[in-house]
Write a structure and sequence with these properties.
Number of domains: 1
Shape: globular
CATH architecture: Alpha-Beta Barrel
Structural class: alpha/beta
CATH class: Alpha Beta
Radius of gyration: 17 Å
CATH topology: TIM Barrel
Number of strands: 8
Strand content: 5-15%
CATH superfamily: Aldolase class I
Order of helices and strands: EHEHEHEHHEHHEHHEHEH
Largest sheet: 8 strands, parallel, barrel
Bound molecules: phosphoenolpyruvate
Distance between the termini: 17 Å
Oligomer: single chain
Number of helices: 11
């Protein structure tokens, strides 16, 4: 099955509201709605920027999607500092990143947390973009395929076979994130193929086939085309390069080729 490519921009903790509105407008200006027949384009700003960015997108009637960078699994209650699925839904998020390595490393997010977040998002009708990826130490030790596929199994444990197709997996080797050191297309494809085999094993080929697998880690307009040409890479999760509208759109265009 040919999967529609997905290019998602992870703005991380960048852009005040004013800056976010400018960047959202620049991105919207660069995007033609008929491209959405061929590629899903999503931006994931910080929480406080979600509503302003959504307002820009609504005004422009653009078909660029909106995603959050994190979520909490409970719908409401005494969870100071957290944001729930219904809150994201109300703002207009259709996507949400979970398990980003920065959240795992800096904020102690565990595989179990990721699994709870995935389940809450699926129940609320928001597509999870589940990040997995190994550290340099794990890569050098040689057991990175086992490590990454175990992360996938843990994140999607207990997910209904029918709901699995809403999930997106982003393979992001930690050694490639924000470092300028990209995985080669062969390195990325090896792991994405192993993820695809794991998904087939978990959900059956028919249910797993629509699940998109992205590569993330210093992807930019110079290296995207070769990475996106790989059989099991269905798009990209873009950090640094998503903060520039022209660079981000160049990658979106590469995904349509
Ligand atoms: C990311 O944060 O998901 C990411 C891939 O970052 P960068 O593109 O900057 O490596």
């Amino acid at each position: 099955m040919a999967r529609k490519p997905l290019i998602a921009g992870n703005w991380k903790m960048n852009n005040t509201i004013g800056e976010a509105v400018v960047l959202a407008q620049e991105i919207s200006n660069e995007f033609y709605n008929d491209w959405s027949d061929h590629v899903d384009c999503v931006v994931c700003p910080p929480f406080v920027d979600l509503k302003p960015v959504k307002t820009v997108f609504e005004f422009d009637r653009t078909k660029i999607g909106l995603g959050a960078q994190n979520v909490y699994w409970e719908p409401s209650g005494a969870f100071t500092g957290e944001t729930s699925v219904p809150m994201l839904k109300e703002i207009g998020c259709s996507w949400c990143i979970v398990g980003h390595s920065e959240r795992r490393i800096l904020f102690g997010e565990t595989n179990e947390d990721v699994n709870l977040k995935v389940k809450a998002l699926l129940e609320g009708g928001i597509a999870p973009i589940v990040c997995v990826g190994e550290s340099l130490a794990v890569r050098d030790a040689g057991n990175y395929l086992e490590f990454v596929t175990a992360q996938v199994r843990a994140a999607l444990a207990g997910i209904d076979e029918g709901a699995a197709k809403e999930c997106v997996i982003a393979y992001e080797p930690i050694w490639a994130i924000g470092t300028g050191r990209t995985a080669t297309p062969e390195q990325a494809e090896e792991v994405c193929a192993a993820i695809r085999a794991t998904l087939n094993d978990m959900f059956g080929a028919d249910n797993a086939d629509p699940i998109r697998i992205l590569y993330g880690g210093s992807m930019n307009e110079g290296n995207a085309a070769l990475l996106l040409a790989e059989a099991d890479i269905d798009g990209g999760l873009i950090g640094g390069a998503s903060l520039n509208a022209k660079s981000f759109m160049a990658i979106v265009k590469d995904a349509m080729r």
